Amino acid sequence: MLVPKKIVTLHSQKNLDMHIANPIYDVVFKYMLEDNKSAKLFLSAIIGENITELEFSAQERTVEIQQCTQEKAPLTVCRFDFSAKIQTENGFKTVMIELQKAKFQSDLMRFRRYLGLQYQSPNNSSDEQQEKARQIYCIYFLNYGMDLPPRPVLKVNYKVEDAYTGDEFPASGEFVSGLHHLSWIVQISELKEHRRNDLEKLLSIFDQSNKTNLRYTLEVDDENFPEAYRQIIRRLHKAKEDPKKRQEMELEDEIIKELQEKERLIEAIEKKDRALEERDRALEKKDKALEKNAKALEEKNKALEDKDQTIVELENAIAELKLKYKV
């Protein structure tokens, strides 16, 4: 019996090859977010608000390294900025969303510097006179362990309270929202332990325990993946099928490996420098102790000399008295 073509199409879409390009790679992450529909779904899920319009602006830097072929190959590592229009109960608001993904702990200072630039930028305003600051949302993807609670997604919020009574007030208003920001921290290493809601199921696309034999691809749980976010899966599946994206992922691996080697070298040098500093401090302490001992010895010798001189003077005085009195 033949199966109707329409049913076959729907079935194949639901159970299509659930192997996707690994978004832990910056090139894949950027490719996913360059699709406006996927980006709106993804960011709305993280912040828990309904983004109706989204404008993407990738902040890029290019790093060139010397390959064994003696050819320089570029890799683009991105920070992501978005201008988002969000539907609220009272209408709409526009915010800036800053998203950064870190592979190294040293990126913490980069987060601080970049956030400072965002606060200074006149583009992050909601009026033509550039006098009203847009609220900034920060999203951080961390691919290493930190001193944070062991949860996949953490929200860092601010509150307004009376410093004397502790009474809390709504954290609203232009002054508060313009000078403070909300943050969401996604800890990739914690994703494998949790699938408690649709957001954590969505973020399973970053769970590195789902890697296939090819480290560039992940397997997604088709049965439990939320239907609302299948656009994101289709986008990452498309990236997996692109040979150019595979080459870019391989190149990113090479550069990350070199950066890790450099970090290890820097850490070894810093460790050696700390050991030398500690040795110098110990030697300096020893020198001070020797100097102190030498000074004490010098004072002791001087005291002995003074004592000997006093004895000589007394003996001379006694000798003179004996002569005088003919003793």
Report on this model:
By secondary structure, this protein is α+β, with helices and mostly antiparallel strands. It has one domain. The chain has eight helices and ten strands. The protein has helices at 5-14, 26-34, 36-47, 107-120, 174-179, 198-202, 230-240, 243-325; strands at residues 19-21, 50-66, 72-88, 91-102, 135-142, 153-156, 160-161, 168-169, 182-187, 217-219. The strands form three sheets. Strands 2-3-4-5-9-6 form a six-stranded mixed β-sheet, sandwiched between helices. It has a two-stranded antiparallel sheet with strand order 1-10. Strands 7-8 form a two-stranded antiparallel ribbon. β3 and β4 form a beta hairpin. 19% of the residues are buried.
Order of helices and strands: HEHHEEEHEEEEHEHEHH
If strands are numbered along the chain, what order do they take across the biggest sheet?
Answer: 2-3-4-5-9-6
Q: From the alpha-carbon coordinates, what is the Rg to the nearest angstrom?
A: 35 Å
Shape: elongated
Number of separate helices? 8
Average pLDDT, rounded to a whole number, is 79
Task: Decide which structural class fits the backbone.
Answer: alpha+beta
What's the number of domains?
Answer: 1
Largest sheet entry: 6 strands, mixed
Alpha-carbon distance between the termini? 150 Å
Could you estimate the helical fraction of the residues in percent? 40-55%
Q: How many beta strands in the DSSP annotation?
A: 10
Q: Detail the poorly predicted runs.
A: 1-16, 61-77
User: How much β-strand is present in the residues?
Assistant: 15-25%
